[in-house]
Design brief:
The chain is α/β, with parallel strands linked by helices. The protein has a single domain, classed as Alkaline Phosphatase, subunit A. It is built from ten helices and 18 strands. Helix 5 packs antiparallel against helix 6. The chain is globular and about 75 Å long.
Amino acid sequence: MQTRRNRLITATPSRREFVFGGGMGLGSIALSALFAEEQARAGVLSPKAQHIPAKAKNCIFLLMEGGPSHIDTFDPKPKLAEVHMTRFQKERSKFAAAMNTGERYYVRSPFQFQRAGKMGIEINSLYREFASVVDDVCFYRGLQAESVNHPTALYHLNTGNQFGGDPAVGAWTAYGLGTVNQNLPAFVVLPDVAYPQGGAANWSNGFLPPHYQGTPLRPEGTPILDMTPPPGVTVERQRANLDLLSKLNAAHGAKHKDHEDLAARMESYELAFRMQAEMPGVVDLSKESPKTLEMYGIGGKDRDMDALGRRCLLARKLVQSGVRFVQLIVMGWDSHDYIEKAHGARIQASDRPIAALIKDLKRTGLLDETLVVWSGEFGRSPDNGIRRGGQAWGRDHNAGAMATWLAGGGVKAGTIVGATDDVGGSAVESIHPIKDFHVTMLRLLGLDDNKLRYLHAGRQKQLSQTGGAVIRELLA
């Protein structure tokens, strides 16, 4: 016979049963209240589950603004040495149609190449440090852009829309996954000394709520100004001021419920307050070991290497601290002439910092859960436009072939995927548009582009615009 202690509470319980059951209910209510409080504090940026199981939990996007030449970095073309300074073929592809007109001549690469990694993958010989991490990288040679105009191509690469105004990839990632650290922004941008063409629209929240926009840090000096309160202002006083402001804004917001900017502004104040406790330690590089600083090229004579090294190290510290998406921008790849000097300087300044980033992520156990992407907005042409003498030649814009690589969580490392033709004019194997590349990035982060949607202007919108295909060859 069942005892009273084990008996289920009936539909008409006794007083003792009611008190016993109510006690359990109060505990669950209290627990639910605690969860609700945390959810309310986290707001729209609370952590969310992946749509699909995936290794990568965050992303560092290394944007090479200006369009690096695949032919002169990671996709050598010996054929160009044979046809050097012969007239460029008139049968030009659709990707070359928007290039400059006039006499055009094929030009060989002014760089030497080396074989690196277990597969002997050919890369520019100036990549001395990067050669040591080739086995962690997947080089993709099949990507094609759709524009040879810098602003539209950058918008396309960053937002999926050539005309801008849509959410950036980082904003979509934050929308899909939220963030694990409520004291830091979910999406951080590390710009160069100048913003890329198209400006801040490259990291916009677009039609997503303003909470998801990228937060740019200063490239020189203190990354964020006013991180500590002014003299005489205590934390308690700041908290009281914010509480009063919150009440006033809440009253105003109740009358204007459709104005998302007000809610985002209120959250930005709260985030700024919370950042004072954690951000100073994240952006402070002085406590890093001399060995780490040297590995990134920080403190050396090369000022460009030092500046990029600081941002690469900061990118590692940001993802280590829970930032979901970091975009790091490197300017100066638009080499229409003197490509040996211009590209050479960019490669030498970025070689050590970027190699150090991959090594450091691997050392700290973060590489498996961090997707690293390196890409420009388009590639460059195998010809030099109007002929110039000596070593002054450069290359025009080319949307038909690009230099792109990936490393980290879920990527097929130490491989080459796709191919371009014998002069590097166009991709010929594993050819995919940028929207497929976006879908693949999301897939590596555990997000399904067809599920990651937002209702705007009467229809469900997504990063790929109209849907895309995962580039399966890039996945491990």
